Amino acid sequence: MKLILSLLLFFLSFGSVFAADETAPVADLMSYEGYKNNVEKYCKLDKTVPNRNQLWVDWEKESLIKKEQVIYADITKKEEGDREYKRHLGDIKADPSKIDTIEKFSLGPAFLEKASYTYKETMGAIYACAVMNAKVRIIGTLMTKIPMTQSNTKERYQKQLDYIRKAAGEKCRITGDTSELSIKKTLLDNTTYQYCNYRQYLHYLDSVSKKSLDVYYKISKEGTTTENINLLKNTDSAAMEISRSAGKITSEISHTREVFPQAMVAFTEFEKTYASHIILEFILQDYLDLRETLKQLLNPIGQVIYKASNAQSPGK
Fold first, then answer.
1. Are strands 218-219 and 229-230 parallel, antiparallel or unpaired?
2. Can you tell me whether residue 172 is helix, strand or coil?
3. Residue 187: how many other CB atoms lie within 10 Å
4. Nearest of 203, 178, 212 to residue 43 by alpha carbon
5. Which phi and psi angles does 303 have, rounded to 5°?
6. What does the alpha-carbon distance between residue 3 and residue 1 come to, in Å, rounded to a whole number?
7. In a domain, 266, yes or no
8. Total structural domains within the chain
9. Global confidence as pTM
């Protein structure tokens, strides 16, 4: 029943995100301010819009990571955007130097690649925190219900529980309500908001890459004699570059939409199997302990039988 409720919440929220994507005004996608306004309008609760009540709007109340919403870069302020990416990645314990690496080896505008890396690392951090929260709940529950007082397995999991709580406290927030459905809802709120923000940014990049060519395709490179290198040297190169960029952005939109529900399903499967995995370990430990106990009990009996048998043998 809990699984059905969590999946129902997921699909209701998932559909709302795409409804927001499809109804976003095209005019708002041409400016960075338009992108930010769309995030406010479609990814947060806008009380000025009747009947708009996204299920994920309260994500900040139970944010799984100790970090505010990532702000994707304005293409007219690349250096400022890079600094924000690096700061955000450092906060979530990811690799900030990856931004410089992407810029160095990019043959064209790297706005998409930088945003994609930041988005994936952010989602990875959120799922890592969700897994930690789930482990705290599952292990903690089993520790209180398993009656064994002396068990190597129980001691090992108790140490693991203490370690997870400490690690989670450094970079994650332990949710107030650690019930199974609550963790799923919190994860759904967090990831859906991040996804909605990123999708709006992809729409922004898609629009400016097609309609603000002089801004999007003009980039600075170290070691050049001129301040800027314009990739759009002629009509043929312009058409080729625009087509290439459009294809990459379209592919990223499709890939992101496909992966988003898969990750949630994978987390649900993890929750379903992790407790079983621990219980099987305890069963195995019980079996090994029982075998050792029987061995200790039966060995003396076996020795007595062996001696009695030898005593009754002919010639003894």
1. antiparallel
2. strand
3. 27
4. 203
5. -65, -40
6. 5
7. no
8. 1
9. 0.76
Give the mean model confidence (pLDDT) for residues 98-110: 88
- Please enumerate in sequence order all residues whose Cβ is within 8 A of that of 137, keeping only pairs 6 or more positions apart, or say none: 178, 179, 180, 183
Structure tokens at 93: 């314990």
Structure-token pair, residue 159: 């140490």
Q: What is the CA radius of gyration of the chain?
A: 28
Q: Cα(204)–Cα(104) distance, rounded to whole angstroms?
A: 23
Residue 202 reports pLDDT greater than 90? yes
Q: CA-to-CA distance for 31 and 76, rounded, in angstroms?
A: 10
SS3 state at 146? coil
| Closest C-alpha among 106, 113, 112, 104 to residue 223 | 104
Q: How would residue 41 be classed by pLDDT, with cut points 50, 70 and 90?
A: confident
Instruction: Determine, yes or no, domain membership for 316.
Output: no
Dihedral, CA of residue 255, residue 257, residue 261 and residue 262, to nearest 10: -10
Mean pLDDT across the chain: 76
Of the pLDDT bands very low, low, confident and very high (cuts 50, 70, 90), residue 216 is confident
Residue 267: inside a domain: no
> Per-residue pLDDT tens for 155-174?
788 888 888 888 877 778 77
Count CB neighbours of 307 within 10 A.
10
pLDDT at 192 over 60: yes
Rounded mean pLDDT, 117-137: 92
Q: 251: domain range?
A: 2-260
Which residue would you say has higher pLDDT here, 22 or 123? 123
Across the chain, how many H-helices and E-strands are there? 9, 2
- Bridge partners, 230 (sequence order): 218
Helical packing angle, 180-211 and 235-311, nearest 10°: 160
Residue found under tokens 């029943």? 1
What is the residue type of 146? I
**Quick check: is 115 in a domain?**
yes
For residue 65, what is the DSSP state?
A: B
Confidence class for position 247, pLDDT limits 50, 70, 90: confident
